[in-house]
Amino acid sequence: MGKKGKKEKKGRGAEKTAAKMEKKVSKRSRKEEEDLEALIAHFQTLDAKRTQTVELPCPPPSPRLNASLSVHPEKDELILFGDFFV
């Protein structure tokens, strides 16, 4: 009769461990979702800073002849070649 009681406890223990594992998995998934949401928000702020355009007031350039305007291959800049003033 003593053996039958042990079997029942083992069954209960398996149920308890299964419940604990489910609880751990749900906690991990919640953490991962929170971490993922935080990462997405962080990258959105970085992207907003990177794509923000700032206009600075400056005087107009002097008139030029035979000048060419080229795009810089690596930076977001325009290059003006030719210094022949009018």
UniProtKB/TrEMBL annotation:
Residues 1-10 have a biased composition (Basic residues). Residues 1-33, 51-70 are annotated as: Disordered. It comes from the Eukaryota. InterPro entries: Kelch_domain_protein. Signal peptide: none annotated. Residues 11-24 have a biased composition (Basic and acidic residues). This is Kelch domain containing 4.
